[in-house]
Design brief:
By secondary structure, the chain is α+β, with helices and mostly antiparallel strands. Helices cover about 20% and strands about 20% of the residues. The chain has two helices and five strands; from the N terminus they run αβββαββ. The protein has a five-stranded antiparallel beta sheet. A hairpin with a 3-residue loop joins strand 1 and strand 2. The longest helix is centred in the middle third of the chain and has 18 residues. It is globular and about 35 Å long. It binds guanosine-5'-monophosphate (5GP) and zinc ion. The site of guanosine-5'-monophosphate has 13 residues, from strand 2. Zinc ion (ZN) binds next to helix 1.
């Protein structure tokens, strides 16, 4: 996707503050952090929303969460606790249409979410 900012990060055109990467997944700090740790984990391949994932993406989805686990360990929040979430489409507040898993921690999270 030529005009997708997260694709530009995945292909190296834009270099965000990367905290984890492998052949399929990239994790970087959110530009507008909502917690002391706020990292986005993305698939390198463009997938617009959670709705577009299919059975063949099962391993990739698992890799997003394994990367989140690595990030939480590295950030020192794994034992204290952290939140992972994916916003899907308008009512959830999705603003970048390339699937991304938020990893939030370093402060107490509230429930229910806003
Ligand atoms: P969404 O609202 O789609 O779930 O989350 C999009 C996230 O991407 C937001 O938290 C926003 O701050 C972050 N974001 C948007 N543009 C950029 C960018 O250019 N760089 C980084 N690092 N984060 C971005
Ligand atoms: Zn993309």
């Amino acid at each position: 996707m030529d005009d997708c900012i997260f694709c530009k990060m995945a292909n190296g055109e834009i270099r965000p503050d990367v905290v984890y990467e492998d052949d399929q997944v990239l994790a970087f700090r959110d530009l507008n952090p909502q917690a002391p740790t706020h990292v986005l984990v993305i698939p390198r391949r463009h997938i617009g929303t959670l709705n577009e994932l299919g059975p063949s993406d099962a391993e990739l989805v698992g890799r997003l969460f394994l990367a989140a686990r690595e990030v939480a360990q590295a950030e020192g929040i794994a034992e204290r606790g952290y939140r992972t979430l994916i916003n899907c489409n308008a009512e959830a507040g999705q603003s970048v249409f390339h699937v991304h898993l938020h990893v939030l921690g370093g402060r107490r999270m509230h429930w229910p979410p806003g």
